[in-house]
Prior knowledge:
Helix content: 25-40%
Amino acid sequence: MRPLIKSSLAALVVLAATTGAAWAQVSVSYVKPDEFIDVPRSPIDRERMLKDFTQYFSTFDKKLPAGQQLKIEVLDIDLAGRLWPRRSGGDDIRVMNGGADWPHMKLRYTLEQNGTVLRSGESDLSNMMYQQRATRLSDSDPMRYEKQMIDDWFEKTITPKVAAK
């Protein structure tokens, strides 16, 4: 290997090792997901849903200041709408009528920086007007109402805007 390439690679490794600790991190876990109020019956669909939520929560690392760690434990999920099982087999159908079928989620969270807890607690998230609000998420995203609810929680609880004095 050429000396210039070798030293450049070594510098990148050192840079990654020294700046990695400064990046924000988000970790998500699910407490007894088989007991959640409303999850897909199929293990494959349930796993897909949890993976989708995990990936969405992980995008918050870009919205946190460097060096902060957000730990989220999902305690319960109730998706928007109601699930109607299909008798003839195939996928179940989720029907959303905008009534008392709004999404709900219960979380426990801890936001830390340098080992100091900045915020922690439990939150009950809900989006009662889920079909009446505009969302930036695509209509093709089956979890758009839940993600909108999660965004609202994150902005109000984790990164609240402080009024200037």
